[in-house]
Write a structure and sequence with these properties.
- By secondary structure, the protein is α/β, with parallel strands linked by helices.
- It has a single domain, classed as Rossmann fold, CATH 3.40.50.
- It has 6 helices and 12 strands.
- It has helices spanning about 15-20, 30-45, 85-95, 140-150, 170-180, 205-210, and strands spanning about 5, 55-60, 65-70, 75-80, 100-110, 115-120, 130-135, 135-140, 160-170, 185-190, 195, 200.
- A hairpin with a 2-residue loop joins β2 (about 55-60) and β3 (about 65-70).
- It starts with a strand and ends in a 5-residue tail after the last helix.
Length: about 220
């Protein structure tokens, strides 16, 4: 399963990753959301290079041009609520895509144990379509895999891309083990450590709270 870590290439993208991690910059929620959005835009551009294309004849005021246009029917799916800014970045570039939304949450038990539960799904039919499933944090990988399995109730995609800003090694390995082999994983950065409470270290904290404010448990 291909894994693409964009931080490995020195570009302006690394500035966006640095800023979403920086606890001082994080105080500005609007900038945090915008940086997640920009990360989505850059990843959209990079992964679009793997799409199949058709040649299209374009009439200009002075003649005719032949351009290569991607021909894959796209569905952008995200996990609420933290995934919304990243999803928007992808949608800015894939503006003709259909959209799907999954509500997932951590159901906590004693001794810091928890399980992921899917509460809600809104999705078009997926048979034969390319699905880009995004969530800013790929921690254990459980939410991503459960979201994918929930989406299968709407049909079987032809291709699947997993998109995250920050991932853990454990989360990447879990996705590789539990999702189709041809799935492509696109992440901003992969961190080494995952705490007992399933937070990525150094990570960035709680992406949902940083983007939209704290919530009552």
């Amino acid at each position: 399963m291909p894994v693409h870590e964009l931080r490995k290439h020195n570009s302006i993208f690394n500035t966006f990753i640095a800023q979403i991690r920086d606890e001082n910059v994080q105080k500005d929620r609007m900038r945090f959301r915008r940086n997640l959005e920009r990360i989505g835009e850059v990843i959209a551009y990079e992964l679009s290079k793997t799409f199949s294309v058709d040649e299209k004849h374009i009439s200009t005021p002075l003649g005719e041009a032949i351009e290569k246009i991607h021909n894959e029917p796209l569905v952008l799916a995200t996990i609420l609520r933290a995934g919304l800014p990243l999803h928007q970045g992808l949608l800015n570039y894939f503006d003709d895509a259909e959209n799907a939304f999954i509500s997932a949450y951590r159901k906590h038990h004693k001794n810091d144990a928890f399980e992921i539960e899917i509460e809600y799904l809104s999705s078009p039919k997926l048979d034969g379509k390319t699905v880009i499933l995004s969530d800013p944090m790929l921690a254990t990988g459980s939410s991503m895999v459960l979201a994918y399995k929930a989406l299968l109730s709407k049909g079987t995609p032809s291709k699947v891309y997993v998109v995250s800003a920050i991932a853990s090694i454990e989360g990447v390995e879990y996705v590789k083990k539990h999702m189709p082999e041809k799935t492509q994983i696109w992440v901003g950065a992969i961190d080494d450590e995952l705490t007992a409470q399933a937070y990525i270290v150094p990570g960035l904290g709680d992406a949902g709270d940083l983007a939209f404010g704290s919530k009552n448990s």
